[in-house]
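FAQ

Q: What does a record look like?
A: Structure on top, sequence underneath. For example:
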């Protein structure tokens, strides 16, 4: 076999091996990204439900909890629902940016914590409608907590794969980029919620 033919076969074999490797890396990253996208879809559905429920709670709370400042909550709810709808329409080739989701959540979760704490002091049947709505939203919050944790686990796995070797050599050129985490406000935990949002987006 001539050296020229041998060289051609080697080059062809290397090209095929490279294409197979690129396909393997791309397929794995796409599986991880799709898992993250499915988990996010569940989160978005719950966020929309909560964003539509909280204004009813605020309206009910106004009659009992006049000392609370809740004027920014309805706007945050509308912004949250709009951000969720926008995230749902993001193309297949990218996970949506979650900055606005995190910031709206910060407002809503702090408001919910304040309303819940104040509602505990409303005595008798006057507080029943308020407590009923709080329980309803509390159920959504519990499901949201599990869904958020599932999404964040998926995103961590996806981000680790992108940043690991050898995927990091070609991830960007294949159209893959790291994604942000969803966070809660840390209300009542002694943490600064805004700071946690910023850290999660690094």
């Amino acid at each position: 076999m001539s050296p020229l033919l041998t060289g051609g076969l080697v080059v062809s074999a290397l090209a095929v091996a490279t294409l197979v490797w690129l396909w393997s890396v791309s397929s794995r990253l796409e599986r991880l990204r799709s898992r993250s996208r499915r988990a996010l879809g569940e989160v978005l559905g719950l966020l929309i439900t909560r964003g539509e429920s909280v204004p009813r709670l605020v309206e009910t709370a106004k009659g009992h909890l006049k000392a609370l400042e809740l004027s920014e909550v309805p706007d945050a709810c509308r912004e949250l629902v709009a951000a969720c709808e926008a995230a749902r329409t993001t193309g297949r080739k990218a996970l949506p940016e979650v900055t606005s989701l995190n910031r709206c959540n910060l407002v809503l979760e702090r408001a919910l914590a304040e309303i819940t704490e104040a509602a505990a002091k409303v005595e008798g049947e006057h507080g029943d409608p308020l407590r009923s709505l709080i329980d309803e939203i509390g159920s959504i919050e519990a499901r949201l907590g599990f869904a958020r944790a599932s999404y964040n686990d998926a995103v961590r796995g996806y981000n680790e794969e992108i940043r690991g070797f050898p995927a990091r050599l070609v991830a960007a050129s294949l159209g893959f980029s790291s994604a942000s985490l969803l966070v809660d406000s840390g209300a009542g935990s002694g943490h600064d919620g805004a700071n946690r949002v910023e850290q999660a987006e690094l």
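Q: Is there anything notable about this one?
A: Helices lie at 3-62, 73-88, 99-119, 128-163, 193-200.
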